[in-house]
Design brief:
about 325 residues; alpha+beta; Uridine Diphospho-n-acetylenolpyruvylglucosamine Reductase, domain 2; Uridine Diphospho-n-acetylenolpyruvylglucosamine Reductase, domain 3; Uridine Diphospho-n-acetylenolpyruvylglucosamine Reductase, domain 1; 5-stranded antiparallel sheet; 4-stranded mixed sheet; 22 strands; about 25% helix; globular; binds uridine-diphosphate-2(N-acetylglucosaminyl) butyric acid
Length: about 325
């Protein structure tokens, strides 16, 4: 039986640095431990929620149920290019592991905070890559049928920061492991360095290699994004909104420097939310305990002692202002518990 802690402080388990407590907290290493914890939840009628890195999370107060925290941290090579990582592996440790072994596919996703178990839920992405590009299978525990399920990538309904785990399987599935199909770094390997100034940064380091891409991405992120140990934050607070192409064209004629990205679907375009918030005048904004990061307007920060309510109030103000100025409704990327 796993140890269940009572009245557990969550401050160290969310990168926003919010004070919150859970009625109960337990760690699980594998499916058997998870099964017994879910049975305990059923018996006691406790709600449950998984917190791994807590890097995309706003904790609004006391959680009345059981917080489950994955600790399984094995990385194994199932086949020469198929890597299996348990949910409790720190994401960037997996990226480092693969780059050290000359296996490509994850290098653009360097230095993203969080654990492997969250990667398919969010379909984490950066610098032109997304987790879905390499995920082959996701293993999860079905808390209704109390059994492990292996879902192939094509059944995960992956989209931009979206998946089946945020949709129909929300509140039902707990990711326990993920398998990634990687590509050996050899002659002909296609490095994905077209995004922003990544190409120039990699060239400065001596040209494309997995470790140079990893170093360049890590350096760019460190320059732009605040260190949660200094200013609590959850990375991008908002998603980049997808809008009709006609609306994007009209906006672009008024604002020629508006950054637009293809969505892969005709008739819709993705707009840089950071640009919209910046242009609306919020970059570097500070009010009491909360603010907007001075180097990246997409990131809200805890200036010290902020509450979830203060952060959400600031985000509501930004959403309303961007809507009135550009006619675009921003939606949150962070999870609110
Ligand atoms: N921009 C501004 N002002 C700002 C911020 C951005 O004008 O304050 C402009 C930039 O100049 C650029 C464009 O907006 O032209 C896009 O900015 P950036 O390249 O910094 O990327 P992003 O769209 O703001 C997304 C992801 C990040 C990811 C980066 C790099 C989302 C919501 N965010 O940010 O992901 O690291 O691209 O690929 O998709 C995260 O999800 O937590 C995250 C940090």
């Amino acid at each position: 039986m796993n140890k269940i802690s009572e009245n557990y402080a969550l401050l160290a388990h969310n990168t926003f640095g919010l004070e919150a407590r859970a009625a109960h907290w337990a760690e699980f290493r594998d499916t058997e431990e998870l099964r017994s914890l879910i049975e305990t939840c059923r018996t006691n009628r406790w709600p449950w929620y998984v917190v791994s890195g807590g890097s995309n999370l706003i904790l609004t107060g006391h959680f009345p149920g059981l917080i489950l925290h994955p600790t399984g941290s094995r990385i194994t090579l199932v086949e020469p290019t198929l890597v299996r990582a348990e949910a409790g592996v720190v994401w960037d440790d997996l990226v480092a592991w693969s780059v050290e072994r000359g296996l490509g596919g994850l290098e653009n996703l360097s230095a993203i905070p969080g654990y492997v178990g969250a990667a398919p839920v969010q379909n984490i992405g950066a610098y032109g890559s997304e987790a879905k590009d390499t995920i082959e299978t996701v293993e999860y525990f079905d808390t209704e049928r109390l059994e492990t399920v292996r879902l192939s990538s094509s059944s995960c309904a992956f989209g931009y920061r979206e998946s089946i785990f945020k949709g129909p399987l929300r509140g039902r599935a707990i990711v326990t492991a993920v398998e990634f199909r990687l590509t050996p770094e050899q002659e002909g390997y296609t490095y994905n360095i077209r995004y922003g100034d990544l190409h120039d940064r990699v060239t400065l380091l001596g040209g494309p290699s997995l470790s140079h891409v990893r170093s360049a991405v890590t350096a760019i992120r460190n320059e732009k994004l605040p260190d949660p140990a200094v200013s609590g934050n959850a990375g991008s607070f908002f998603k980049n909104p997808v809008i009709p192409a006609a609306q994007a064209e009209a906006l672009k004629s008024q604002h020629p420097d508006l950054p637009l990205y293809p969505t892969g679907e005709k008739g819709s375009v993705k707009v840089a939310a950071g640009w919209l918030i910046d242009r609306a005048g919020w970059k570097g904004f500070r009010s009491g305990t909360v603010g907007v990061h001075p180097r990246q307007a997409l990131v809200l920060i805890n200036l010290g002692g902020a509450t979830a309510q203060e952060i959400l109030q600031l985000s509501d103000q930004i959403i309303a202002d961007v809507e009135s100025k550009f006619g675009i409704l921003l939606s949150k990327e962070v999870n609110v518990l």
